Amino acid sequence: MNAVVKRFPVRLDVRRGAVDMTHGSGGRAMAQLIEELFVKHLDNELLRQANDQASFTVGSGRMVMSTDGHVISPLFFPGGDIGSLAVHGTINDVAMSGARPLYLSAGFILEEGFPLADLDRIVASMAGAATAAGVPVVTGDTKVVEKGKGDGVFITTTGVGVVPEGVQISGDRARAGDAVLVSGSMGDHGVTIMSSRENLEFETAIKSDSAALHELVADMVAAVPEIHCLRDPTRGGLATTLNELAQQSGVGMVLQEDSIPIKPAVLAACELLGLDPLYIANEGKLICICAQADAERLLKVMQAHPLGRQAAMVGEVVEDPHGFVQMQTSFGGSRIVDWLAGEQLPRIC
Amino acid sequence: MRYVDEFRQRELAQQLAAAIRKEADPQRQYNLMEFCGGHTHAIFRYGVQDLMPSNVHFVHGPGCPVCVLPVGRIDNAIQLVEQHDVILCTYGDMLRVPASGRKSLLKIKAGGADIRMVYSTQDALRIARDNPDRQVVFFAIGFETTTPPTAVAIKQARTEALDNFSVFSNHVLTPAAIQNILESPEVREMGSVSIDGFFGPSHVSSIIGSRPYEFFAEEFQRPVVIAGFEPLDVMQSALMLIRQLNEGRHEVENEYTRVVTREGNTKAQSLVAEVFELRRTFEWRGLGLVPYSALQIKKAFAGLDAEQRFHVPAISASDVKGCECPSILRGVKRPTDCKLFGTVCTPENPMGSCMVSSEGACAAYWSYGRFRQPEKSDTREDAA
User: Fold this and answer.
1) d(Cα B64, Cα B76) in Å, to the nearest integer?
2) Chain B positions with Cβ closer than 8 Å to A
3) How many angstroms away from the CA of A259 is the closest CA of chain B?
4) Which residue of B has its CA nearest to A336?
5) I need a labelling partner for A303 at 20 to 30 A (CA). Which of A55, A130, A219, B335 fits?
């Protein structure tokens, strides 16, 4: 944007202003919002070109692409907000293929009346997360819907990345005998969101674990390129994600309840609300399935990374035509860990 | 977690399991009914039956508030929303229970009905205060445990003169249901079902005390042990029941002494007595019409009674064809005996109420225990 001439004589009133229908009209008001709010924070060379698309060259190899809509309520929560979450969520989805994420796009659906100050805070947080991750937002879109037709702001992000040579990670590659690893404690994000909902407020020191996992994944893939499956246990938690993988691979799994890391405060909140922490969403954790022989080495690599300190082996893959995920309970019995049924908590991400 | 972990210790579980194995007479079968869904849930979630000898059987009872509510009462709730345009406040599990005509509260909510999931009666009162132009109805369900908070809400609404608030009472009583099961022909004539003893409810008993069970322990000569909801509570209580049976006793014993007394919570009892009175009869899913087994709002509070305010009709609706919930709730059949179980009826698409709540026997079997019954050939070993 060659802003030699001052294009907008009156600056956007970020402090007191609100989104109105003109911000999505394609006219001058929209251009100003983009320039003085979105580009201001997310600034990078590709975005600055102000085209309807970002144009970049890519090296040879396999590319991956992933998209993720974010409708979380509340928009701001301990440990993050919808902006940082939208960056982390898509980076993680790209990274779970073993890929190095390169670029992101962001689509905003704004509700008429949404305070610009909140939007500014969200976009700044998004920019912070993108910069920290080294994955820029290079193209975007803004739409405005009438008051009552949205809920403040929804953000859709899309990401692309490149998979290193020799890496073949997929949800259908779990084999009997494989080890099941998790990168840290389960349930932090979901419990944080629950505790900050207006109809369910309770005090807890837990923060969302929202984080970009691509660097942890890069370390893991460098150490063991033969990793079979990676997936981040977001909605539906560990239980549902393992069931997805078991179904995709046509195998069963047996977990050891004792070895699944869960923070005492998360356990306590779940106890209070009658929830099972295995079904609670995470936003900065991954599940890794690998050959038993690679498990120890991978665990060490994970534990050496700040986002994998509490990594643990939680079970193994077994042959099972029913595809059951079973668990040896700490109590000494066994049970199924089934798919999540119904909706445990809407709008968690 | 203090006060929780103590009741889930593996070492103690092993010791109790050893004691049960030692004391259970291999020559006899022990059929122990856990009345409450809370116990059913604990048994499955912690895998308690893995620790029991093969001749000790858990028979799952009707103590799941969502499960026992008949279809007609859910149809009533749907009518309140569709015909009277009320805001209906309900506990989450009720949303998915199937009603007549393939409806459910969840489905009509998706169709635009104003149905709010609440966590307590206080949430419902708040919604009434926030929406003075709308009628707000609290869909009250549950056994004696959830009744006192409903009584509190009714009194509070009266004090605040919240004219747009009312309660659709479906509160039911535990002792009447247990007695009904024991009087049923299947049990009485020692035909298809044998129930040798009961795990008494834990939370319910914290309100009503252990005394109400004394009558039928004596009358029907079945031991009752009031049991907490933690897995060690269940095991300890199983041991106590086995001992009573071995010794030919049929007493009310209290394992859950950390909460339950013989008299119960008298303050809560008087609060309930102030607002509620016995219904002459009430329909239960599975048990049919059970005399004096439910509560209605007293005349003094009639203004807050949704049944009066909206002239709620009595509807008798039938369950889905083939659904065995009624027999399962009486302990006559097991979930795996039902043709719908796991075929068309799953937690994602429940046809019967027992598949809805995590306290329902079918949902517990399906979600936690179905690896034990990979084929549908399971039959009750304890059937005579």
Assistant:
1) 20
2) 1, 4, 8, 10, 13-14, 17, 44-51, 96, 118-119, 123, 231, 346-348, 363, 366-371, 374
3) 14
4) B368
5) A130
- Among B10, B43, B64, B362, the residue to mutate for chain A (most A Cβ within 10 A): B10
| Closest by CA position to B25, among listed B242, B249, B248 | B242
Contact call for B50 and A324, based on CB within 8 A: no
A29-59 per-position pLDDT tens digit: 999 999 999 999 999 999 988 899 999 998 8
Distance from CA of B137 to the nearest CA of A (A): 18
Per CATH, is A179-336 categorized as 3.90.650.10?
Answer: yes
CB-based contact A318:A294 (threshold 8 Å): no
Domain-wise residue ranges, chain A: 21-163, 179-336
* pTM over the 0.80 mark: yes
| Contact: B371, A322; criterion CB under 8 Å | yes
Contacts of A148 in chain B (CB under 8 A): none
* Within this chain, domains A21-163 and A179-336 share the same CATH topology: no
* Nearest CA-CA distance, residue A181 and chain B, Å: 22
**Residue B70 · residue B284 · CB < 8 Å:** yes
All structural domains of chain B, each given as residue ranges with its CATH number in brackets, are 5-64+187-254 (3.40.50.11750), 67-173+264-309 (3.40.50.11740), 325-370 (no CATH)
N- to C-terminal Cα distance for chain B? 44
pLDDT tens-digit map of A285-331: 999 999 999 999 999 999 999 999 999 999 999 999 999 999 999 99
Query: How far is it, in rounded angstroms, from Cα B329 to Cα B213?
Result: 19
B173-226 pLDDT tens trace: 999 988 888 888 777 665 566 899 999 999 999 999 999 999 889 988 999 999
Q: Which of A334, A336, A339 sits opposite B50 (nearest CB)?
A: A334
Judge contact between B25 and B246, C-beta under 8 A: yes
Contacts of A343 by beta carbon, 8 Å cutoff, 6+ apart? none
Q: How far is CA A234 from the centre of its chain?
A: 7
The contacts of residue B302 (CB under 8 Å, 6+ apart) are: B308
Q: Looking up tokens 């219904």, which residue turns up?
A: B279
Q: Do A333 and B374 touch (CB under 8 A)?
A: no
Pick the CATH number of A21-163 from 3.30.1330.10, 3.40.225.10, 2.70.150.10, 1.20.1250.20: 3.30.1330.10
Residues of B in contact with A187 (CB under 8 A): none
DSSP state of B320: P
